[in-house]
């Protein structure tokens, strides 16, 4: 994953409403949730929900599928795992350097 893509995804998740919405979709699993159900759970206007979903779709974190007259939203788990991996990939990579620097300062 590129730094720019990760930054856009994190920016999208930086809004409390979008983060809450995304967590609802992650909890829903592969079945996803209909837009109407999300609107009812969140208690927000349809236009507001549409705006927030659009931001999550643009960053690739959410997918949508029309089933007859119902729009189903799903968390894009590969994208989520990619973002988590990007954040954790180099965890503690510089730990030895930090430890040596701390020892030298002591």
UniProtKB/TrEMBL annotation:
It comes from the Bacteria. Pfam families: HTH_20 (PF12840). This is Transcriptional regulator. InterPro entries: ArsR-like_HTH, HTH_ArsR_DNA-bd_dom, Metal_resp_trans_reg, WH-like_DNA-bd_sf, WH_DNA-bd_sf. One of its GO terms (molecular function) is DNA binding. The lineage of its organism: Bacteria, Pseudomonadati, Pseudomonadota, Alphaproteobacteria, Hyphomicrobiales. Residues 1-95 form the HTH arsR-type domain. Transmembrane segments: none annotated. Keywords: DNA-binding, Transcription, Transcription regulation.
